[in-house]
Amino acid sequence: MSSSSRTASPGPGRTVGPFGAPQRPDRKVGPFGALQRPDRTVGPFGAPQRPDRTVGPFGAPQRPDRTVGPFGAPPRPDRKVGPGGALQRPDRKVGPFGARQRQLARRPDGLDLVRVAAWLAVAAVVLLPFGSMILLAGTEHLATLVDGDVVEAGRNSLVSALASAAGAVLVGTALALVLERTDIPGRRALRLLALSPMLVPPFVGAIAWVGLAGPASPINRWWRERFGEPLWSVYGADGVIMLLIVHSYPIAMLIVTAALRRVPADLEQAARIAGASAPRALLTVTVPLLRGALLSSFTLTAVSNLADFGIPSILGTPERFTTLATLVYRYVQSGTVDDPLGVVATIGVVLLAVALLAVALDLTAGRRRVELDASASRAEPLPLGRWRRLVATLAWIVVLAITLLPLLALLEQSLLPAPGVPLTPDTITTASIERALTASGTIAGATTSLWLAGLAAVLCGGLGLVIGTLVTRTRARDNRALHTLAIMPQAIPGLVIAVAWLVIAPRLGLFNTPWLILAAYVTSFLALVVQSVHAPLSATPLTAEEAARASGASRMRALRDVSLRMAAPAAIGGAVLVALTAVRELTLSALLLSPGSQTLGVVIFGLQQGGGPNAAAALSLIVTVVGLAGLSLAVPKSRR
Amino acid sequence: MHRKTSALAALAASALVLAGCSQADAGPAATESATADAAPASITLYTSEPQEKIDQIVAAFNERRPEITVEVFRAGTGDLNARIESERATGEVQADVLLAADAPTFEGFAADGLLLELDTADVDALDPAVVDPEGFYVGTRIIPTVIAYNTDVVDAPPASWQELTDPAYADRLVMPNPDVSGAAAFNAAVWLDEAELGEAWLTALAANEPVIVDSNGPTSQAIASGAQPVGVVVDYLVRDLAAAGSPIAVSYPSEGVPFVSQPAGVFASTDEADAAQAFVDFLVSVEGQTIAVEQAYLPVRGDVGTPEGAPAMSDIALLNPDLEVIAATKADAVATFNELFQ
Q: Per the CB < 8 Å rule, is A434 touching B89?
């Protein structure tokens, strides 16, 4: 992206207005010296702008596919046209009315400070653990790894991550469109149900699916008796990819929904006026504008699925489908390698390389930007008419199948005392639920998880808001590096991040404190917020900030009053994602807990491993139900 | 429906109250407990015991030695290894006592000079097979790997390892993954080391294509739910599930069973050697072993009986291989296993 930062101030202390009148800092002067009123944004000829319409310079409605220059001339991407149509020359800054401004060395301002602070924070939560990981890794382990199927595991990781990310974006986008933009009945309930896989720890979801579609599940047994072959077994690569999709599409759905709410309604209205049918308007006008969100969510789900451990370990192991994340555990668990830390760190570096590939794809594809202006008017829901029943039925069937079935499987297990006991009125008991609630650590674990998840959400929300805003709303050479660094940790398995933090913790005095887990959470989940902010804002043009700058706001002021405010809702959505993910997180806290403390994920896993699978199911179900209740309060009602 | 939710709410509330009470009880008790004859001490225990079980043990120990606070860090064996390795990389191990895994793991720590020589009380009463002759660690439970079967599906369970290679069991077997489960890796080495089993038997077993799941927990659940009605798993999980009502039972194979002993050892870097030793002593004392038996484990001493539903110790044939050989061959054994069971 070429850089065209706005006018530099012509001297310390005084900013000179368009006619040379000294500006008074307490008044903002518009283009003809008219005082600006903060409550109105004034268009080029003093006409008050209407927030619900984006109007071009002569009142022509803007077309999203074209940004119209000042005299209606279509812009040429290779040339920046200044006010008055004068070509801007990158070596010269042209002020309003084409007056040449002298290039002045800019003194560092608040924005530079913000940028430095963001870099320092990223250095603390990303570069520090990565550095310790790279120091632990050594080239001498590469030989071990090449023997140890690292190439095959790397291929499996890449294939399953990319395939599941594509699936997650497809499912998430389809659901977002149906729930946001059509009039199907029961939207609110559907939306909550569709988000429920986020709340189930992936390893619990995988176990529930083994009960539903494992080789010995009732369906497959019945099918085998009839046709000699099981219908479909959840074990193996296809099952791993399917479960990764089920557990990551809610992320894509939330990001696409947020972006969808920013697409101005008038574009579709224009298309409708021009004679397009409602579905065509939706598919040809709105969906292309979601490209940024689709890319952001694709990158995010791809890198997080690269690092997922629970699903490939439960569903991949029986079919010998190994990913890099399960390989890491193999080397640590079996105790058969001499320097497990070095091997783990080396795999971490390999994963970094794989993730860089995925992110590079995103960044090269993301260069061509579609820009559209924000709009406050809501799009009309698409009346489905006679298709309403069909679409509703389909949507409900899909959502129920992928969310309610496993929840029902969990419910069945919760009501039974032990695995293998048939469900009859006589065998139903609350013993497992009682055991789950009274297990040592449940209450303490819930408390720890809640406050850790809350703090992580606040920290990631704040830092992610600043980083996401900087990389989308300002122009700087280091944006891409900052963005990449902030989302890379998502691709590293929890075990590797935990080991990296463990190794540096004693030097920071963080050892055996909850702050260590918090630091690891911020490292791991920052990407969720950065991508949530990046998705809607990368497609919004910088006009609002430029207007603020033209009206005399400093770069910092423009960032604070315009960009950050624009990004805040997306950051809050991202922070909710962080909280949901952190509440049920397992691998980081399993290693970083201080003795005597617990988190919910660890309690559930401990019950699962320690011979209480039904209690583990009961606790997962309780967490999911409570989480959904909380979510129904947190997810904004659609404004209708 | 409404009644059910209010019952649940009441349950949750009572759990909260209980938790509050127990904490309130723990508060003053812990502060006033320093008895005159012993200075208060605090030790950190790293263990792979299930949380509920280790909590019971610590509570019983504190009735005896209330002045010693035991901080428990519970994780899977692999996570414990990763944590101990990370701590070693930057300084010294932060734990005082380790209670996990198997003898070869402890042999490795002892060889690196990480362990303190123990002076375990009453050591002569213990099964000599679980006591380290050099005194660096002592086994605390006998955890054999056995054949388990689903009693609803299987009438005549296999009585020997050899029987598992019968084609009748094709697609009906389940076992843990030696890459993940330390006990399974140990077993692979023991089976390959046994003259009458060895690689020929393992190859024949692989021909039946057992489902390989992560660890012993999911293995026992697969057998109990009938997903795979026969499997290879540690015995105490089977007794736990059977006690909870699952249709599952143990068969001790006639050739003998490989076992791990969940040893306890004290790290040389400890500041509380006496308190750590006291905890290890308690684990193998009559009282500690009685708790182990109540928790469905086979004990390491002969004077505390065996768990309900388990045969007497004298009726169980244990395989006692040379542990140094097992430690040396474990990595190769896991590799062989992986090749055969691809």
A: no
Residue B116 phi, psi dihedral angles, 5° rounding: -90, 145
Nearest to A512 among B51, B94, B180 (CB): B94
CA distances from A183 to A186, A264, A270 (A): 9, 19, 21
Query: Which chain B residues have a beta carbon less than 8 Å from that of A207?
Result: 218
How far apart CA A293 and CA A261 sit, in angstroms, is 11
Chain-centroid distance of CA B266 in Å reads 18
Residue pair B75/A591 in contact (Cβ under 8 Å)? The answer is yes
Cβ contacts of A440 on chain B, cutoff 8 Å? 51-52, 55
- Taking the alpha carbons at both ends of chain B, their separation in whole angstroms is 49
A337: nearest CA partner in chain B: B331
How big, in percent rounded to 5, are the helix, strand and coil portions of chain A?
A: 65, 0, 35
| Per-position pLDDT tens, chain B of length 342 | 444 444 444 434 443 333 443 333 333 333 333 444 578 999 999 999 999 899 999 999 999 999 999 999 998 888 898 899 889 988 889 999 999 989 988 998 999 999 999 999 999 999 999 999 999 999 999 999 999 999 999 999 999 999 999 999 998 999 998 877 888 989 999 999 999 999 999 999 999 999 988 889 889 999 998 889 999 999 999 999 999 999 999 999 999 999 999 999 999 999 999 999 999 999 999 999 999 999 999 999 999 999 998 999 999 999 999 988 998 898 899 889 988 987
Nearest CB to A440; choose among B51, B89, B225: B51
Task: Tell me whether strands B263-266 and B137-139 are parallel, antiparallel or unpaired.
Answer: antiparallel
Between chains, do A340 and B85 touch, taking CB under 8 Å as contact?
Answer: yes
Mutate to test the interface with B, among A141, A334, A593 (most CBs of B within 10 A): A334
Q: Which residues of B touch A610 (CB under 8 A)?
A: 50-53, 217
Smallest CA–CA distance, residue A193 to chain B, in Å, is: 19
H/E element, B68:
strand B68-74
Using a CB-CB cut-off of 8 Å, the residues of chain B touching A338 are none
Put simply, the answer to whether B218 touches A442 (Cβ < 8 Å) is no
Nearest CA to CA, how far is A438 from chain B (Å)?
Answer: 6
**How would you classify residue B50: left for phi > 0, otherwise alpha for psi between -120 and 50, otherwise beta?**
beta
Q: Min CA distance, B220 vs chain A (Å)? A: 8
Tokens of A450: 């809640």
State both tokens at B251: 């068969």
Nearest CA in chain A to B186: A334
Under DSSP, the state recorded for A369 is -
Which of A417, A436, A262 has its CA nearest to residue B11? A436
The number of C-beta contacts closer than 8 angstroms across A and B is: 191
Q: Do A502 and B83 lie within an 8 Å CB cutoff?
A: yes
User: CA B69, CA B97: separation in Å to the nearest integer?
Assistant: 13
* Range list of H helices, A140-230: 140-147, 150-181, 187-195, 202-213, 218-227
